[in-house]
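User: Predict Phenylacetate-CoA oxygenase subunit PaaJ's structure from this.
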Amino acid sequence: MVTVLERDSELRRRAWDAAAGVVDPEIPVLTIADLGVLRDVVLDGDHVEVAITPTYSGCPAMNMIALEIELALERAGFRQPKVRTVLSPAWTTDWMSEEGRHKLRAYGIAPPQASSSRRALFGEQAIACPQCGSDKTELLSEFGSTSCKALWRCKACREPFDYFKCH
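Assistant:
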């Protein structure tokens, strides 16, 4: 016999897994679970609501992410799923998974180097080049290909690269 609690737990896990597989349209090697954007899944009877927190309050990818979450949940058998944006607490790079950081580096983007609280106290550390690993790098622009990244260049291998800003 399956209890209501067990059924709800299984449904919640199935909904979480469906939503967690949605990729970030700006960095397609990362899922919203890797980024820590996926915050919660709530079941209410047959309805499911997913809570997400944007990396930036004006992040243009959030509408696409919400639509992709709804589609993923519908494909998983959930009817009329809802996506709710949660702005508080604000997203921080501390929520990014270790696996997500490794995926960024492999994709050629330097991951955030320290926790957001450490950065606030001590400033940005030297950013290691994701291509060659050298810390002999320089900031070219506070803004890279998206608002959450900065453009850097490695002085050793001379390659430009994006750095996912710590915040």
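Residues 86 and 128 are 32 Å apart (CA to CA).
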